[in-house]
Fold each of these.
Amino acid sequence: MKIIWRVSPEATGRYRSFEMRSWPSAHYANGKESAAFCLSCESAYVPADVKMGNHKEIKIRVAIYSTTPKERAEKGAFVWGTLTRRAATLKEAKQIAAEFLALHYKVIHTEVL
């Protein structure tokens, strides 16, 4: 299963200094834009800092689609789960996400594939 990573656009406009750029997220390359992974960090996403590794640890969240019909009615198509393993770099976070997907592909619902 292939995933595509995206970075949010840089803040623009009059009040851009008050906005914090979000960390990259991934979706499945199935044409449906189904969510796959979301990265978060206490530090803002600044490409120069990310290259140098000047940020706090990165949390990796995964979209879990293998929910029961009752859960889907209450919570929606998927729920976000947070991996216990953290990453020190963006490259490592993407690698952890790929490893998780390879080992636990059953969290993906057949509608997403």
Amino acid sequence: MATTKNKQGDVTEATTEAPVTDGGVVVDVQPYEVAYYYLPAKNTDGAFFPGVPLADLTPEMVETYPKWIVKSIKASPMYKAANASPDEDEGEGGDK
């Protein structure tokens, strides 16, 4: 199970469950599917795509993005397709 750490030091395991909060208090946990895992270690310069969170992406989220954004996500080393084999490099545009 992959974890993500944001700049505030919060660690999340967003690859299997997303917390539902009420004023910062977790009130329920709902499972969700991941299309792309966010790899913060591959984004040391703080790059981003307009409208795309620096977090794991669900298929529903990806469906709403323009084609050029989806192509950028696929080519980026900071996102890894959930269905990629473990020995594949992160992102089609990553250093090989």
Amino acid sequence: MAEHVAATAEPSRANLALGLAITGVVVWIALIATDHDGPLWLLQPVLGAAAAITGWRAGGGGAPRGRALVAVVVGGLLFAMFAAFIIAEIAS
């Protein structure tokens, strides 16, 4: 019974992770398009980290595959872009 529950939970987590990653990209594009300079930029790393963590957990103990892998990569990139921006701002 426990195997059945775990097997059906993985696609749901992968879909959630992919949804978070897509939402993060949409928020990023919207903030760039509106040239916004405010605290809403904090949504980018939060959504990116949430997508990456959820995608990694969807792997079920192994490496993520399929949709979960896409979410880990996109979420990681969203978080890394924000971190690079902060480091560049501090350095200048």
Amino acid sequence: MRHLAMDAERAYRADAFSPQRVIRRLEEIVRNAVAFLETQCRHENLSVLRDHHRTTFALNFWAMALFARLAIPIVPETGQRLLNRIGLENQVTIEGTGDFV
């Protein structure tokens, strides 16, 4: 995910501007997040993985925030609405979106 985010950030720069590349990276972020969540849901009933469930939730939350921040320059209302819904209404910058880990 971090590499996808960094590539999307690069696609916003003037010397490499490519909205199409940003959209492709956003789509990849969604596909990866969905695949990750589907894989993790197979184990949701195992109580021994309670800490693992918290980590899964945190990573999916981060993926939503990442998507929203990267989407704002292309679809500002949608990106902002998603940030608002997850309680990050003041975090709209895309710089450093790949620096989660």
